[in-house]
Design goal:
With 142 residues, the protein is of the alpha/beta class. The chain has three helices and five strands; from the N terminus they run H-E-E-E-H-E-H-E.
Length: 142
């Protein structure tokens, strides 16, 4: 590629203006950035050694979390068995084997056609029994 030099307009040495982009400085900067990234990425990928406890053979598998299903009309099921609001806390405590409800997560599945009042009655009963960690299971309507 030949270089064009700017000069006076008109006359016998009129070459025109130089409108080409000089990419050499851009390539130099990109190569420097590439080298910087190649030098800094290996220290960023160093793994951290974690000492995990060994698996215990014959250990019981973890229990599934408590699951409450609310149907229209105020019908409440706990892990597939029918229950009522006053006995819901006792049913959960007897199934999980721990009377302390502070760390227990309760899963609630509520159908679309259940009234909000029925849902809130279950949530309020859980709170009055001490179960504050509630997770809602949502399903896509389509």
């Amino acid at each position: 590629m030949a270089a064009k030099l700017g000069g006076k307009t008109g006359g016998k040495y009129n070459i025109g203006q130089n409108a080409d982009i000089n990419v050499t400085p851009f390539v130099d900067i990109m190569l420097v950035l590439l080298i910087i990234f190649m030098v800094t990425i290996p220290p960023a990928t160093i793994s951290i050694k974690i000492d995990l406890p060994p698996p215990t053979p014959g250990a019981a598998p973890p229990r599934p979390p408590p699951f409450i299903d609310i149907l229209p009309g105020g019908h409440v099921f706990y892990n597939g068995a029918p229950t009522s609001l006053p006995t819901l806390g006792d049913d959960i405590a007897s199934r999980i084997g721990s009377p302390d409800p502070t760390g227990q997560v309760i899963l609630i599945h509520c159908r679309v056609d259940v009234r909000y009042e029925e849902f809130m009655n279950v949530v309020n009963q859980l709170q009055s029994d001490g179960y504050y960690k509630v997770a809602l299971i949502l399903e896509n309507a389509s």
